[in-house]
Amino acid sequence: MSLQIKFWGVRGSLPSAPPPIDWTYHIEGVLRNFFSSGYRDPSQISKYIQGIEVPLLGGYGAATTCVEINSPKSQLIVDGGSGIRNLSERIMTGTTGRAKGPFHIFMTHFHWDHVIGLPFFTPHFIPGCEVHYYAVQPELESLIRGIFKQPYFPVPFEALKAKIVFHVLEPRKPYKIDDLTITPYKLDHPDPCWGLKVESGGKAYAHCVDTEGTRVTREELGEDLPLYQDIDLMYFDAQYTLPELAEKANWGHSAAQVGLDIAIREGIKKVIFAHHDPGARIEQVLELKRQTREYYESRSRAHKNDILWDFAHEGLEITI
Q1: How far is it, in rounded angstroms, from Cα 77 to Cα 9?
Q2: Which terminus of the chain, N or C, has fewer Cβ atoms within 10 Å?
Q3: pLDDT tens-digit profile of 10-25?
């Protein structure tokens, strides 16, 4: 058995893409590299492109946080950032076999970048569909209802055709959704934000966005430590460099080095970093990646731990 995870939105704070002039320079660089890589004939273009990592060619994406987790029997969506619109379109093609649901959406918190896509999740408007919302926040229902309300959105909640069900979860208490077990743990964020441990068939995914990572030792993490233990894949907030993290204390976002320290200590097998700053261009995320690699190499030599890690791009799919 396995878990399949797809990242539909990996941007933080605000949907954001490079402006046209930036793409112009980027495409020029890609074209120049075609020739410097030894290619000459147009028939070689496909081979050249297939050898380039997706972010180096198409960037990291513009959509905000939305993660899809599939087990053999169920599907869970974490957060409704702008990335959920593309997921919705995929669902409505019928290729997933789940056009009528039920759909399960866990909300970590309710900042704009995590809810902006919810009104564009088409199953809300289809008779016979079921949409289940989960959160630790007791205001879950009122907060979701408030999104479907003028002047923010023209269709009121009462006009939705689907059956909408709300589930307020207890902190740190496991909850079953078919063959999935989900357990919310508190993250380090100015407004209450809850990460999620998702388990099925002996595999475990830890969703740790948005978090500043101010608690790092086992003692500091206390009852939230299990979020980072026995994990196959951790999704961790890495919006800032280490110097930026110091400058932006209490903003609720972290740096890759913080996540690596936790992963090395707890033996996490793979880490994917995300919540890219809305102002971060391709080159800036690549620089974060370079700094992370430098840090990882110095730490792994000391601890002899082999951890796979990378920075997420929109559309990335991982099976654990």
Answers
A1: 12
A2: N
A3: 999 999 988 899 899 8
